[in-house]
């Protein structure tokens, strides 16, 4: 089963909630380990347009705030459940969640 890297950002106030949702949906499992993820502080930047209902910030003004980047992983067939869980736990109106394919050399070895 192909594996995917998951990337998203979240305000500190919702970090634990989003991590719990992500892992409850099946992300972050490898061998005998669960809840595997990396987090680190970043500065997020955005401009809410006239149709936006921003969680943080003011329409028409460039915003920036401290967020936490979350990286984890899941099997490809878990991605729909992970996406749904993160969207439900996340406070943002529009959540950016990237799913990136991971190369596994044990299933497709490089030839010389």
Radius of gyration in whole Å, from Cα? Answer: 16 Å
**Content of β-strand:** 25-35%
Extended strand count: 4
Main pleated-sheet profile: 4 strands, antiparallel
Order of helices and strands: EHEEHE
Shape: elongated
The low-confidence runs, each spanning 5 or more residues with pLDDT under 50, are none
State the separation between the terminal residues, measured CA to CA: 25 Å
Would you summarize the structure shown here?
This protein is an alpha+beta fold.
Q: Secondary structure elements and their pairing?
A:
Elements lengths: L2 E8 L4 H10 L13 E9 L16 E13 L3 H11 L7 E5 L11
Antiparallel strand pairs: 1-3, 1-4, 2-3
Helix pairs in contact: 1-2
Give a description of the structure.
The two termini are 25 Å apart. This protein has two helices and four strands, in the order E-H-E-E-H-E. With 112 residues, it is of the alpha+beta class. 19% of the residues lie in helices and 31% in strands.
Which descriptors would you attach to this protein?
single chain; 112 residues; alpha+beta; four-stranded antiparallel sheet; 4 strands; 19% helix
């Amino acid at each position: 089963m192909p594996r995917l890297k998951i990337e998203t950002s979240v305000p500190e106030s919702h970090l634990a909630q989003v991590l719990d949702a992500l892992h409850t949906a099946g992300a972050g499992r490898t061998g005998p380990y669960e809840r595997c993820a990396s987090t680190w502080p970043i500065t997020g930047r955005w401009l809410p347009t006239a149709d936006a209902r921003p969680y943080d910030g003011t329409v028409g003004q460039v915003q920036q705030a401290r967020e936490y980047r979350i990286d984890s992983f899941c099997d490809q067939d878990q991605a729909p459940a992970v996406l749904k869980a993160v969207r439900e736990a996340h406070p943002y109106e529009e959540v950016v969640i990237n799913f990136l394919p991971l190369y596994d050399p044990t299933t497709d070895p490089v030839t010389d």
